[in-house]
Structure to design on (425 residues):
């Protein structure tokens, strides 16, 4: 392995794999440093315990205030466990910041194969929900997904990783980058950037055999919004770590005799109509694993029978009120405004579920899967995603200006493409 690289990219998720691929396509010399393993077997709850971040005895990680924080440490990052939802978000906000992503969005949508979920994949429960929503004057539409629908076997287990490889993940782009000559170090955790005379010189961290130091002309941090700010803080950029959002959501589960929602890709439909005014979206969703329901809703969640279970996720664009500290602690509360958005969504979700005959509702704990905002443009990075340390860039959800309240992968991928182009032109 070489000692000195033109580019080191930290993390191989949505942002990291995309920018590494773009740089490799332009003939640049790239090393990807990835804390997680390349997982050969994915797709079951048991598998997922290896890569989802947990604390203590297999309990999910939470903020100090008790909000569950879901993310994975693995090659491909959290894209591997996504629901494959691919919608544009924050395009106008990036435009206002001088970053025009239109061309990158189009390219990404083509490459990822994004198209609306076909009716044939919907469960009876979601079909009924779509009709009930329409009768009530609401608008549930097919969710656009980066999923090869012909390979989907309707197991409902997208969030454990797809064992049929039906879903686009950052591993697709990582494979392209490696085929183009990039190299990768798995199970190697970056801790800080080496900085001299205001310029980045490489990274320090820990690999399988202990301490590692890698020299580089350019470093791009893409370790995700809970880790990138820690690396920045360790590198002298104390301004990182504030403004954390997680797109706080709750799942409203209910029991409906004769309806089974388990056999469909999660979040197959979506209602966006309240997003701008009330700050929430609704999407049919149940957790097929009782243990996951136990984690998010306690005994009541565990006791609910999966074969009669129906549910809707209420996802909000929450306040960027959280913070990541240098020792890894995360503070993220549900603010009064967040609670208002959640309550508004739960009310409509229960109305729709009630209309299809569901009852005995259980609302889960607040949780988040879209962590971001901890190194935003204008505070920690400039309009080229560069920090005040020269040639030290950030390209992951940390730079998103505020909570999207919508799936962010497509936007992060577009941003990775944009940065790759900006760095090589
Ligand atoms: C269960 C679940 C479902 C989701 N579903 C969707 C969805 O359907 N659509 C959507 O748009 N979004 C979805 N998301 C959110 C989406 O996955 C994330 O917003 C997105 O992956 C963030 O991209 P990123 O590049 O910031 O981080 P990631 O994709 O998480 O990548 C970060 C990478 O850095 C690595 N890493 C971490 N620390 C270090 C370190 N110190 N050194 C080196 N490497 C490190 C990690 O292992 C990982 O590979 C979902 C998330 C979860 C958890």
């Amino acid at each position: 392995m070489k000692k000195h690289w033109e580019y080191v990219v930290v993390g191989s998720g949505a942002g990291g794999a995309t920018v590494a691929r773009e740089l490799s396509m332009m003939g640049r010399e790239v090393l990807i440093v990835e804390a997680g393993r390349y997982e050969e077997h994915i797709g079951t709850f048991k598998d997922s315990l290896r890569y989802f971040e947990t604390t203590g005895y297999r309990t999910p990680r939470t903020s100090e205030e008790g909000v569950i924080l879901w993310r994975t440490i693995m090659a491909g990052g959290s894209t591997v466990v996504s629901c494959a939802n691919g919608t544009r978000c924050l395009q106008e906000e990036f435009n206002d910041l001088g970053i025009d992503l239109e061309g990158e969005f189009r390219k990404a949508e083509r490459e990822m194969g994004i198209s609306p979920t076909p009716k044939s994949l919907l469960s009876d429960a979601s079909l009924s929900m779509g009709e009930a929503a329409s009768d009530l004057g609401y608008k549930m539409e097919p969710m656009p997904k980066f999923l090869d629908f012909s390979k989907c076997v309707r197991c409902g287990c997208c969030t454990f990783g797809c064992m049929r490889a039906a879903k686009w993940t950052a591993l697709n782009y990582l494979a392209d980058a490696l085929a183009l000559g990039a190299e990768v170090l798995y199970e190697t955790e970056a801790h800080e950037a080496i900085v001299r005379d205001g310029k980045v010189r490489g990274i320090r961290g820990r690999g399988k055999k202990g301490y590692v130091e890698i020299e580089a002309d350019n470093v791009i941090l893409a370790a995700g919004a809970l880790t990138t700010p820690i690396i920045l803080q360790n590198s002298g950029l104390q301004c990182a770590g504030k403004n954390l959002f997680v797109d706080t959501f709750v799942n409203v589960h209910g029991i409906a005799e004769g309806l089974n929602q388990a056999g469909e890709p999660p979040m197959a439909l979506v209602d966006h109509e309240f997003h701008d005014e009330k700050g929430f979206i609704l999407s049919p969703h149940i957790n097929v694993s009782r243990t996951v329901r136990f984690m998010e809703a306690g005994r009541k969640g565990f006791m609910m029978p999966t074969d009669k279970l129906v549910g809707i996720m209420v996802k909000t664009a929450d306040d960027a009120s959280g913070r990541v500290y240098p020792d890894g602690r995360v503070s993220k509360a549900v603010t009064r405004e967040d609670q208002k958005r959640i309550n508004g969504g739960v009310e409509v979700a229960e109305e729709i579920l009630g209309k299809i005959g569901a009852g005995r509702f259980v609302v889960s704990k607040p949780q988040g899967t879209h962590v971001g905002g901890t190194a935003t443009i204008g505070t920690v990075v400039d309009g080229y995603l560069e920090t005040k340390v020269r040639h030290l860039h950030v390209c992951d959800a940390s730079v998103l200006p505020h909570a999207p309240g919508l799936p962010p992968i497509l936007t992060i991928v577009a941003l990775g493409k944009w940065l790759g182009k900006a760095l090589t032109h």
